[in-house]
Task: structure prediction
Amino acid sequence: MVRYSIFTLARNALTGHEHWPRAWRSPDPRPAYEVVIVGGGGHGLATAYYLAKEHGIRDVAVLERGWLGGGNTGRNTTIVRSNYLHPESAALYDHAVKLWRDLSQVLNFNVMYSDRGVMMLAHSQHDVHILKRHVHANRMAGVDNEWLSPQEAKEYCPPLSIDPRARYPVLGAALQRRGGVARHDAVAWGYARAADALGVDIIQNCEVTAIRRDGARVVGVETTRGYIATKKLGLVVAGHTSVLCAMAGFRMPLESVPLQALVSEPVKPVFPCVVMSNTVHAYISQSDKGELVIGAGTDQYVSYSQRGGLQVIEHALEAICELFPMFSRMRMMRQWGGIVDVTPDRSPIIGKSPVEGLYLNCGWGTGGFKATPGSGHVFAWTIAKDEPHPLAAPFSLDRFTTGRLIDEAAAAAVAH
Result:
């Protein structure tokens, strides 16, 4: 591990970092690659890393139209958990959680993963039944989850109000202790540096403008930096998946909508975990910088804007102030939005497309960040072997024609 003294840090700071070593190269694109990954977010970079690390495929290019992590990877609320209802989902997300735990050591880059626990609140008898069902389903699938009484929830998260006179009283909570948060941009940087060290070309400011086919097979992509030939193309572009698939000549069962979040002024450590409420569409944690990180529900319109309606933020803050009255005097510092791609059953699509050699990783909706390492790992397998990883097999595109849906709307309603 590279170590820098305080004098080295000061020298680089005062000289505009001109002597600071680059974390990854900035090569010009070559005419052809064995595999091209479109999308330089966490999922795309993780896919490239595991292709090189696990499968020995290093002739790989990652194409990003902007800068690394400038999309949803840098625009989410960093929550990590695996307490999904269906066994297929729980297995996939738990695979990611297991990779999260050692990711800093594996990448030799601190992704700041903190397993502080994720608590999901129940405000009605219906919520109680739903969350207890999740708890039992998770235990049967070998995923940790436990039920807490209101008093136990208060003990785990002291700022939480359990006043029975509240508009949405807390009747209990489901707690996954292995859940937590990680640093979103550090995840992108860590995977980028590790993939680059294995020979992967990471090419920023390179937008795909067309996908070229020879009959039923993909043969390359047109970009703003020239044509790049490839026999294997992986699309990992979240909200813009439908746009690129249209270039390849087929439609996707996706809608893209804005999802908003905001942070407060920083304060001393006061919030020990992550708390989520699907009923009131709000969730909250505290960053290592001391900011309260607050997420809301999706806006109710289709859009590619990275903004959103003010009423959604107002609704989320009203809920937060009721659940945590001590935060009512906090000042909000900034707000942002991401573009989430949502499938009819709120579960992702991982696998082959109707075009030979073109692979899809999309439809993560509001839950993409938490899946980053697991998603990249199984998608790399799928591309390398031209067959779905066992954990990814249930999430194929053809489930929308066979009817074998994996309905996770209740588990994925506001999580990100």
